[in-house]
User: What shape does this take?
Amino acid sequence: MTGARLLARYLNRYRANLAGELSKQKARIEKELEGVAEQQRRFLAAEEFREKGELLLAHGKTIPPGASVVRLTSWENPGRIVEIPLNPERSISDNAQNYFKIYKKWKNYGAILETRAETLSQALEEVIEQESVLFALDDVRELHLLQESLFVEKHGTPQDPKRRKKRLPAPPPHLVFSFPGGMIFVGLNVKGNRYVTFQIAGADDLWFHAQGVPGAHVVAKVENLREEKREDFLLCAATLAAHYGKAARNSSVLVDYTEKKHVRHIPGKGPSHVRYEAFRTLRVTPGSWRQKLEALQRALEEDNS
Assistant: This one.
């Protein structure tokens, strides 16, 4: 078996292992979301406790002392009879206050459940987005960066013993392509996207994203380049944005780009959810990313030789 085929087999196995880990994460999040949804359904039923308390206060004088249960007509749904268990050793007012206390507890818990549901939904979106990018990764280094990130998220500590010993935080997964006259940064997951967009990019740097599909945030820092080389540089960055995303296997992809100062995080959404304006669009072929990188590198090196 040739070296190329061995490498391809190794990469396929590496990707499959990471896909399995992502699948486990997704299943865990989906299961927890189901649990939260069930608790939210119980929370909605808590309105019954409020109604019972209000009915007891309204009909308190007509309820005989020492009653263990009372049946009253609902105000909110006329014709429906509400059966209300009572503690016969306590007054009707005390029984009502107890129902209000239970209702208040569930009402406060409802806000916690809503926040948890939003957090889990965002986490699920992140895993799904990562799955869409995973099979565009065809380099051992890229896959290792992702594996390290997944390990940190699961265990809270870097997998690399040297990094763990020195307590060095693992940088979010991203790639850096350096050329004479510029650099291109590519996020490899949600945290990597946020990192390149909001920590690496300057206000006037260019930001790229495949139009309408999940994928990498790409940032291009362009220095002093002639106009034709600048256009080649932008096309290269756009092709990387198309390749590292859900549309990587399409024959052509539309990629939007704009200056970083026109990119804003969407409040209440996941860490890499953004809106952008003042953008232009390029049509590129995702599969040509490697050729464009190599051609750009050669052209810029020749200019500087």
In short: Residues 3-45 form the longest helix (43 residues). The two ends are 40 Å apart (CA to CA). The chain has eight helices and ten strands.
